[in-house]
Amino acid sequence: MTSPFGRWTIDTTTRRAHSDGVSKTLSPRAVRLAIELAHAAGAVCTRAELLDRVWPDVFVSDESLSQVVTELRRKLGAELIETIPRTGYRLTTTPPCPVVQDTDPAPFDPGFDLEAHALCLEARREVVRCGRGSIERADALTEEAVSLAPNCASVRAERAIALVRRHTYWSEGRHRLEEALQNAQRALELDPTLALAHSALGYTATIAGQWQAAERAHRAALARETRDPVILHNAAWYLMSRGRIGAAVTYFEQVGDQEPQNVKGYLIAAQLAAGFDTARARRNAEQGLRRAELRLAVDPVDPRALSASASLMALLGEPLAAANTLDQVDVTESSQAIYHAAAWSRIGETERARRLLEELFDHGWRDTYWLDAEPGFAPLRGDRRFQQMRQSLVAA
Fold first, then answer.
1. Is the dihedral of CA 119, 124, 126, 127 positive or negative?
2. Rounded to whole angstroms, how far apart are CA atoms 167 and 200?
3. Rounded CA gap, 286 and 335, in Å?
4. Which range scores top for mean pLDDT: 151-155, 330-334, 345-349?
5. Left, alpha or beta for 317 (phi > 0: left; psi -120 to 50: alpha)?
6. Structure letter (DSSP) for residue 221
7. Is residue 23 within a helix (H) or strand (E), and if so which, with residue range?
8. Is 206 helix (H, G, I), strand (E, B) or coil?
């Protein structure tokens, strides 16, 4: 089968493009993208549409689409594909005329409030600090932000994400997913184009186990925004929850790259990679330790940095150093105890790991996905008490 693409004819069987005696070989994705653009006959194809059609069964980032567009331009001619800013691409058979860009600012969200936005930024910082009471404070901060700006889409999205965290890690028996869902849906009503709103919906659906809805929402979020560490984190958690660990590790590494003040991205990437790629786990662990050292240089008693250091040293095979550091950090009434539990388990202190898990579960910690994905819990998986604890989470 052949398909016209500008002055080229593409043989979809051999993946060869021909024009005036010149022949070029294309990748399978480039062929599919060329067909989609050709079928549109000059109409604009949005990025989301192209991601759905060229990668129908695979979760990929916007960067994958950009790479295939680059391949077609490099091999068949840069003038054939026109970029429509903030929208997508279209096929053109002649070089596009220069366009004078509108210098007016982007559309303004009438519900935006500076003080509410500041509260949401502080809520994000609380999650990065991850000390005692941080999840509760993030919950309270976003609640106050909504009271100031109830019709701001980004505030509603931040509120939904904070509620999912509160529900999953420190609920004290309260179910918060319904409220999270309401806020995510309200954010999308206010601004259907907001990537963070789609991400909030995807995060909520992930924790609720609604996999198709979660996949659609995360794809929609990443089709619009690929640099926000919160959006990357939420997509990574979905991938991990579905057992797609390799892709999840890549996203957590990107979280580390995009959020220099946070050690969590590299920490989780190292922990998950330990189950299938020890060299990659080591690289991420060493990067995470460097990040933790920078934080400790500013605050020598930073609980998040100390806790991460201990977990990473345990992963790197330094049990004595890990144990000494673990003993320095009080994780009582902190969701950070989950990382300590994994570290104690990894260095053979299973009883201490069990006690920490029991305390977490008493406060409403619900994330069975992490229990299953974290290789550090392997020594506990045959333990009857651990199995009972995990089963109680599933039943809840």
1. positive
2. 14
3. 23
4. 151-155
5. left
6. H
7. strand 22-25
8. helix
**Which residues, including other chains, have CB under 8 Å from residue 209's CB and lie 6 or more apart?**
none
Strand 8-11 versus strand 16-19 pairing type: antiparallel
**46 phi and psi, to 5 degrees?**
-70, 160
From residue 374, alpha-carbon distances to 58, 271, 273 in Å are: 24, 6, 9
pLDDT beyond 80 at 199: yes
Task: Answer yes or no: are the C-beta atoms of 38 and 4 closer than 8 Å.
Answer: yes
265: alpha, beta or left? (left if phi > 0; alpha if psi -120 to 50): alpha
- CB atoms inside a 10 Å sphere around CB 20: 6
Given strand 16-19, what is the order of strands in its sheet? 2-5, 8-11, 16-19, 22-25
Q: Are 84 and 44 in contact (CB under 8 A)?
A: yes
The pTM of this model reads 0.69
- How far apart are alpha carbons 226 and 245 in whole angstroms? 19
Q: What is the rounded distance in angstroms from the CA atom of residue 311 to the CA atom of residue 341?
A: 9
DSSP code for 269: H
